[in-house]
Amino acid sequence: MSSKVKVLGFWYSPFVARVKMGLKMKGVEFEYVEENIRAKSQLLLESNPIHKKVPVLLHDGRPIAETMIILEYIDQTWEGPPILPRDPYQRAMARFWVNFIDEKCLNTMLKACWRTGEEQKKFKEEAIEALQILENEIKGKKYFGGDEISVVDHAGNFIAYWFPLISSGMELITEDKFPNIWRWSSDYCNHAFVKENLPPMEAMIPKFKRR
Amino acid sequence: MSSKVKVLGFWYSPFVARVKMGLKMKGVEFEYVEENIRAKSQLLLESNPIHKKVPVLLHDGRPIAETMIILEYIDQTWEGPPILPRDPYQRAMARFWVNFIDEKCLNTMLKACWRTGEEQKKFKEEAIEALQILENEIKGKKYFGGDEISVVDHAGNFIAYWFPLISSGMELITEDKFPNIWRWSSDYCNHAFVKENLPPMEAMIPKFKRR
């Protein structure tokens, strides 16, 4: 009997995109269930009662929450190309950069977009500081892990694909200020596997313009 | 040739205690280097240039930062009792609760201690909400993973051992309000391996009373 895999998500979520890509990398068939942010399903509330957030992975009915925890579970459960490097040191480095992007970049970039006045100024400064570290890290490399795309690049999908859409007019990441992130963003979005698995931009524009 | 392992830390840090215990569980010999919070060593600044924080593990000169990343590295690198459960689902659950304790409990508890006025009130409420979830999780179990002490309990070392010291007078965790966390805290601190590896209370009291 083959196992049953379900993903609860929002189609426009960068975190859900990371989980979907992880499953596709491993060739795992799954059922995708679209959630409604204003009326979350009973299944979502029961599967992630503490955070009540997507993505949630259900494997034979057992729920797992939080993007990186789900990805590590997928990596350990199914055969196929590794999601995290197998070498312990490289794996630790990948975890470090995923954490850095999630905690230092995304967090401050979102707040720089959504807050106003002095608060916005503060978060913009923090975002620039974090992005400068990322700029130095990607310098001279095609992807964060080297020549091949990896879990760290997928963690940065928000920076490459979502942020330019929601930050219009803010000019936080320009070719001039962050040439290496700019170049990496283009390479990331044009990578064949990524391109196939990112939500379509023509649906994203009206979705995020409404906000 | 045996490998060289070094830990940079503060003796009174709950995070450093977690790393030291991880190495001791595996029977790894290491050199412990005490850092000065007011004059961090060149080695620390070079080993963790981004966060400039302890703990840092150096393995044959290669630095690894961040408590959970270090613990996962130790678990993957050395033989011995597992730090994280081997079963992928149990491992995902352990990661979930470690994250919950680190992000939701410690964060709010510290702010409830250090902030004042309205801010303090807000963080106190958030801390109580998070602790209530933890209270339900530990109910009916000796330790978070069941009968045996595990990585989740060690993540909670701050709650059991440090918090009562720094929160004196706040009465956030009392036997009355959180009977299961109260009982677990006592079991945790009296566990033979833990007792041997926590910083001595007689040194902790003057250290934290000065703040």
TrEMBL record, chains A, B:
EC numbers for this chain: 2.5.1.18
CDD domains named in the record: GST_C_Tau (cd03185), GST_N_Tau (cd03058)
Record domain GST N-terminal: where: 3-82
UniProt keyword terms in alphabetical order: Transferase
Gene Ontology MF terms: glutathione transferase activity
Chain ranges of the GST C-terminal domain: 87-208
Reaction catalysed by this enzyme: RX + glutathione = an S-substituted glutathione + a halide anion + H(+)
InterPro entries: Glutathione-S-Trfase_C-like, Glutathione-S-Trfase_C_sf, Glutathione_S-Trfase, Glutathione_S-Trfase_N, GST_C, GST_C_Tau, Omega/Tau-like, Thioredoxin-like_sf
PANTHER family, A to Z: GLUTATHIONE S-TRANSFERASE U8 (PTHR11260:SF676), GLUTATHIONE S-TRANSFERASE, GST, SUPERFAMILY, GST DOMAIN CONTAINING (PTHR11260)
Family: Belongs to the GST superfamily. Tau family.
Protein name, UniProt field: glutathione transferase
